[in-house]
Amino acid sequence: MDISNIMQNGAQAFQSKLDADGDGQIEVSDLVPALTDLFTNIKGDMDISSILSGLNAGGLTSVAQSWLGDGENEAIDGEQVTSLLGMDTISSFAGKLGVQVEQAVGGLQEALPGIIDQASSGAESLADIAGDLFEGDTSSAEALLGDAADTITGAASTVTAAVGDIIQGDDKTA
């Protein structure tokens, strides 16, 4: 799924939280660019790994795993959203939308699980996330991806050993 579709869905979830009374104060067309700015890096790619690392560092590994998995996404509360993204970031985001910080946090509570869930669907995305995490703290990757991290680590070790054997002329597969 492409980033614009993910952000569109996130914007709709955010809007449903803020516009519970149906007064239409905030438009999806305003939310999409604000959410895109919030969750993408300079290259325009989704920055999932930093969010997942933040969840793990905050003791929310089970939340991260639920967002990565195929089952129901665990909820995140307002304090956790604020801790994860930081007050300055949330204040800036709220300012772009012209809403109160509390409203922004409430909308992000609703939108964040779905955004990460959709952005992380598919084996290629999970491999990318694992790769990003392995560049930093491997314990984070192992905690977030569980058995998948063990499989990736084992496969990487096997490939590394095989390449080493080939370089040394000990290719046992030939």
TrEMBL record:
InterPro entries: EF_Hand_1_Ca_BS, EF_hand_dom, YidB, YidB-like. Transmembrane segments: none annotated. It comes from the Bacteria. It holds the Pfam family YidB. Residues 17-41 form the EF-hand domain. One of its GO terms (molecular function) is calcium ion binding. This is EF-hand domain-containing protein.
